[in-house]
Amino acid sequence: MSTHTSAPPDSSTTAEDKDRIFGVIPNYLTVEDPNKRVVPLTVKQKFGLFAKETFDPFTAASAAAGAALSQVDNDNPKYGVGAGPYAERFGAAVADITTQNFFSDAVLASLLHEDPRYFRRGPEFGVWYRIGYALSRVVVTRTDAGKAIFNYSGMIGMGMGIGLSNAYYPDASISAGEVGYRFGTSMVASALSNLLPEFWPDIHEKFFHRKPHRLDPPSQTPSP
Predict the structure, then answer these.
(1) What stretches of the chain show up as alpha helix (H) in DSSP?
(2) Is this prediction's pTM over 0.85?
């Protein structure tokens, strides 16, 4: 039997999880070592990872960039042009990210006992298999017990966040077609976002001449 009685406070934030891809993109939700034995996240840890992921400076920067792109052609959400509409676009982008992450990674992952992390496959598998695996994780996740299941927390949480966005999007950007489009683009973005965490350790080792992170030895609980 395992000597662990509970998850250590920082078990979800090992050295590998603290890396930033290309030194910029946060990588908090990735378990890099496919052979690593992990303990389930507590509810507190799931909410903590949500906060780290959502309130990272890179997240704000990406929201600002997305708002700028939609501002160019007054794309959705159609707030108009000028400084005021740009601020509204930026606020909406931050709200979109926050609500989807909150519902998926914190609330529903806790209620449904699903693990919001990405479990990398690693170089033991072929490139095309790894690409397919990474893309499929948008609809497949792991339970806290380590079993693969449909990603209920991710899919429902994404839908809840998009539904909530209708409360602050302008009327011109609210329709069944627009909601369906936002859901589709969110799914594609979520799937593609798994590719970098999957291949980043390989890129890091090959081009930056750095070995993958060494795992810390498992902690032992003293015998009573």
Answers:
(1) 43-54, 57-72, 83-101, 109-111, 127-136, 152-165, 176-192, 195-208
(2) no
Q: Is residue 220 part of a domain?
A: no
Under DSSP, is residue 139 helix (H, G, I), strand (E, B) or coil? coil
- 1 assigned to some structural domain: no
**Phi, psi angles (nearest 5°) of residue 7:** -70, 130
Total number of domains constituting the chain: 1
Q: Give the tens place of pLDDT for each residue, 75-120.
A: 778 888 888 889 999 999 999 999 999 999 999 999 999 999 999 9
89 lies in a domain? yes
Q: Which domain holds residue 156?
A: 15-208
Q: What share of the chain is helix, strand, coil (3-state, %, to 5)?
A: 55, 10, 40
Looking at residue 68, its amino acid is A
